[in-house]
Design goal:
The complex is a heterodimer of chains A (306) and B (68). Chain A has 306 residues and is mainly alpha-helical. Chain A is built from 14 helices and no strands. Helices cover 59% and strands 0% of the residues of chain A. The longest helix of chain A has 28 residues, at 199-226. Chain B has one domain (2-67). In chain B, helix 1 crosses helix 2. The chains are: A mainly alpha (306), B mainly alpha (68). Chains A and B meet through helix 11 and helix 12 of A and helix 1 of B.
Chain lengths: 306, 68
């Protein structure tokens, strides 16, 4: 049965079984949009480097362009972390890690590390002792999130302790971190090699954009949807708006849909919300009562005061 | 195999220091060219990489992972 038909049904039945039945109709496709974004932004980043090195465009223009493209590098990896790039096709599972890792080159991050810690975030959202994102999520101001997201991996940091504990109790987590560690080391060396030949370009086209993009991710992907919320499947994420078009937040205003059903593709979340809104209101998801019936590009803007 | 293990162990412990020396040293060295005419002299180059090394050491002992 299609989602439209299910969505138009009488929603007197707001059981968990019915909720799952509706959600399942929205899962399983290959999120080709993320494959295009992942490979496209990385290719553009390489082109920007080439244009700057050949003095075709100035360094400052390269910086602006690189910052924009780098801001798009995490979402495709995130889609890969949840298996959206292969959908229900088991023979295409390699797409998740290959495209996910290529997409992360501008961010100089390891897909396996981000996947392992992100899945722990889903399992322990808003738990101060178990959520890897807690340090930059539960803060008072956006700038604290922007800074903390860079500080959390220090050797004496809370995240390091969490990783140590997860590695002891979960062998697959440990393996993923070790696999990812190789890529992290590779990125460390890559930057040290490139900087010798192109010092200022490496700073302005790689290091600085990825720091800015990481802050952007910390604020919009972690803090805004989760800050100061309790633990609980239907309580740990909120609908929100900050006056910017949803596109500029990478649609994180509706991140709550992702936490409710991580197997639903990012680009299908608006129609998933439309289909599941009665269930979301019934479950008391923060902000669900203010969401309009139609979730358009910027539709949340008028319904939220902050 | 042991050499590889020792290498990874070394980079895990001292990666930030090497990053400070090479990455930030190169950037300080390149930046000095904008401010000093004789920045190519050995003293300037040495100073730039020394600053990078100090930043790397500070990062290691103070947990400034943001330098990477």
């Amino acid at each position: 049965m299609g989602v439209d038909k299910l969505a138009n049904q009488d929603y007197q039945d707001l059981s968990i079984e019915q909720e799952r039945k509706v959600a399942r109709t929205l899962m399983g496709r290959i999120e080709w949009e993320m494959i295009v974004i992942g490979l496209g932004q990385c290719a553009l980043w390489v082109v920007i480097w080439s244009l700057v090195v050949q003095s075709i465009i100035p360094l400052w223009a390269g910086f602006l362009m690189s910052t924009i493209t780098t801001a798009f590098s995490y979402l495709p990896s995130h889609a890969g972390q949840h298996g959206h790039l292969s959908g229900k096709h088991k023979n295409l599972k390699w797409l998740n890690s290959v495209v996910g890792q290529i997409s992360l080159i501008p961010l100089a991050q390891a897909h396996d590390v981000l996947k392992a810690t992100h899945l722990k975030h889903h399992a322990h959202t808003n738990d101060p002792e178990r959520d890897p994102d807690y340090g930059h999520t539960h803060v008072d101001h956006w700038w604290q999130s922007a800074l903390n997201v860079h500080l959390q991996t220090g050797t004496d940091g809370k995240l390091a302790k969490m990783v140590e504990e997860f590695s002891i109790e979960d062998p697959s987590f440990k393996q993923a971190m070790e696999r990812g560690g190789l890529f992290s080391m590779l990125f460390l060396f890559a930057q040290m090699v490139v900087v010798v030949f192109y010092p200022l370009e490496t700073l302005v086209l790689w290091w600085l954009p990825r720091k800015l993009a990481t802050s952007f991710i910390g604020i919009f992907f972690s803090m805004e949807p989760h800050s100061k919320l309790p633990k609980g499947r239907y309580l740990d994420t909120r609908f929100w708006s900050n006056g910017m078009p949803r596109f500029f937040n990478h649609s994180m205003q509706i991140h709550v849909m992702h936490h409710m059903y991580p197997n639903i593709c990012h680009f299908d979340e608006p129609k998933a919300i439309e289909a599941l809104l009665p269930f979301m209101i019934e479950r008391g998801i923060p902000g669900a009562d203010k969401v309009p019936e139609r979730v358009k590009l910027n539709s949340l803007l008028t319904n939220f005061s902050s | 195999m042991k050499i590889v293990t020792l290498f990874f162990e070394h980079i895990t412990n001292w990666g930030l220091v090497w990053f400070g020396l090479i990455f930030w040293g190169s950037i300080f060295n390149a930046t000095s060219a904008y401010y000093f005419q004789n920045s190519h002299e050995f003293g300037f180059v040495l100073l730039a990489y020394l600053l990078g090394l100090i930043l790397g050491l500070l990062a290691k002992y103070r947990g400034w992972v943001w330098i990477n």
